Amino acid sequence: MPTIPLALSWFAAHLLEDILPHWLAAAPTKSGLLWPSVDRQWRRTGSPEGTLVSQGRLLHNFATGYALTGEQAYADAVADGAEFLMTAMRDGLHGGWYWSCSADGAVIDDKKDSYGHAFVVFGLSHAAACLGDDRCRRAALDAWETLSGPLRDVHGGLIPALTADFSAPAGRAINSQNPMMHCFEALLALGDLPGLGHIHVRAREIADFLLSRRSPQTGGALAEMYTEDWQPIPTSQRGRVDIGHQFEWAFLLSSAVERGLGEGYLRAGLELLDYGLLVGYDAEEGGIHADASLEGEVIRPDKGWWQQCEAVRAMLHYALVRGREDLWEPLQGMMRFIRREMVDSEYGGWYAGPGLEKGNVWKVDYHVVGMCAEAIRLQEWAGGVS
Q: How far apart are the first and last CA of the chain?
């Protein structure tokens, strides 16, 4: 039994007594839209608008809640939220999914966004696992067909966004690894469903495509932004390395190895993990910085909430599953920083930013849930060590 110099029991209590109950009280609506915007005291704010990202991420959160507690309220939120996603947010004319809708089902933004479609696959895969619902499974497969069809470019990457009829670019024009990473994550979840193990082969294609674009110039890191033909954009042209994404990829690649996708991905995961620690970790104050130049210098020292979650999840995973005992010391520094700077001791939850709100269309605590769920899995894997 491994020695764990960190209280893993904190993560279960934090998730099941704080994070998930607050979201369950705040997010579900009568129409099925999962409301993402809440203030510091978890009161709804803003207009009743949801995006593919917020809806898909909250489906994952509530499916996780049901898997861990068996409480029917979580399953009900998943069922209603999945129904809204599959009806109001789905384009019956051109195919694919609209980027955003209001609570009454009115389309707000009709673009077809690859990042958003990745979270349709992700959210509906978790909904299918939670509910045993074949309709969710089929819809997740359909969203993947959109990603691998009209949203795939000639090089094998993902087009950032297209118009509603897929005829022209929409919005962002610069290629990013971010939709690819979340597509990889979504395909791991989709391939976990019974009878869909072959989907993991498609996840490998995504990983291989991006990992082949690492270079000595970036110290083995994955650049964030790319040219049209998927060459890293240099720092001088506002290219960067997102440090949090190095940790996120490190975790996902090791998780892929656990699923049998090939031991070769573990080497890449270790390299990304070590890069994140070397370049991004603040050994004095704790926490992970946001961005680095392609040459490995921190260029945005902010310490966002989600970067901390991804770093902790990856470090916990590699410390226990991969035997990296050197990670326990920085992990302790990370947790001191998180409890001091990120977690609201009065009202619960994590601050989304300087405004102290707890949620918006981007921040619905999917990163927090993922971190805590992995800690719970690892505690069980290690034999219940607290």
A: 12
**Residue type for 271, please?**
E
Task: Determine the Cα–Cα distance for residues 100 and 311; give it in Å rounded to an integer.
Answer: 29
- What lies within 8 Å, CB to CB, of 185 at 6+ separation is 118, 122, 252
pLDDT tens track for 316-368: 999 999 999 999 999 999 999 999 999 999 999 999 987 789 999 999 999 99
Cβ count near 172 (within 10 Å): 15
The answer to whether the CB of 287 falls within 8 A of the CB of 277 is: no
Phi, psi of 33 (to 5 degrees): -60, 135
Cβ partners under 8 Å of residue 197, min gap 6: 191
pLDDT in tens, 259-317: 999 999 999 999 999 999 999 999 999 999 999 999 999 999 999 999 999 999 999 99
3-state secondary structure of 187: helix
114, 156 Cβ separation under 8 angstroms = no
Q: Which domains does the chain have, with CATH numbers?
A: 1-212 (1.50.10.10), 237-350 (no CATH)
**pLDDT score recorded for residue 5:** 82
